Amino acid sequence: MADLKDRVEGLRKAFEAEALKVGDAKSLEELRTAFLGRKKGHVTLLFEDLKTVPAEGKREAGRLINELKESVTVRLDAIEGQLSLAWPSVSGTSAEAKLDLTLPGRKKYVGAAHPLVLFQQEIENVFLGMGFTIEEGPEIETDYYNFEALNFPPHHPARDSWDTLYIKDDLLLRTHTSPVQIRVMEKKKPPIRIIIPGRVFRRETPDPTHLPMFMQIEGLVVDEGATFAHLKGTLEYFIRALFGEKIKVRFRPSFFPFTEPSAEVDIECIVCGGQDKSCRVCSGTGWKEILGSGMVDPQVLKNVNIDPEKYSGWAFGLGIDRTAMFAYGITEMRHFYENDLRFIRQFGAK
Length: 350
Description:
2 domains, 7-stranded mixed sheet, elongated, 11 helices
């Protein structure tokens, strides 16, 4: 027992002598390892030798070793604190690294809305200013709301399983936000003036301009005397509010099962202005299709018990992701969903 006491006291004195020599992080770590290392630390080896101490002396011997360990630990922590004050570390590197005052300051980033959310809010604000309200609906839909009530014939290609993601029987992931139009018209009577933002799902192979999940926003107006002229004027106002007063707009005849007549809306290519025949955005045409629109088919109004002889309506829809790509000059839709902070911080996350 006397031998153990002498060893403990000798180690205490040796530690204090070495502690006075510590001047940097490296020597501090070497001292910590020498005394508290898991395999060959001086204090660790004392605990190993405790096994040979007679039973009547184990308690006292354990107390002495634990006191030594505690004092060594406290002293090492104190030295580390002193070194940190004398030599501030940079990004957790060695305490020897002095603070370089020539480096730019470190910026603390705070969260912000996703770029698609920001762009959606821009769109919403334009229509809210025109008296529209925002409606939402379920992402899991029935075949009736997603197709049948919207005048899709039974064998329409959009209803095939290679286009639509079916869950079971007639349950599916909605392929557009148009089902919400039906749900709103079932519950509300005209006048109706709404926009419907939300996620939609289709069986798509991911590529730069297609994803199996994307954002869409649709609008619907149902009222007495609603005309195509109202639709045209509203969309022209919206597009110029979003892209600028000088943007050129054109309407082209098209077809959708739930509108008649129907039109696709193009805007002048904001990348090349129609001057570059090799432009990848507009394929050299000078125009970019941005949304689909048309007068609500009378049969759709009948499906929700609205008299098409008294009321008429018009609707439109556009992809938020694709429109944002065009507005921001982005060539890859997948960038929006990769959560790369270098990309996201360009749009408002400061």
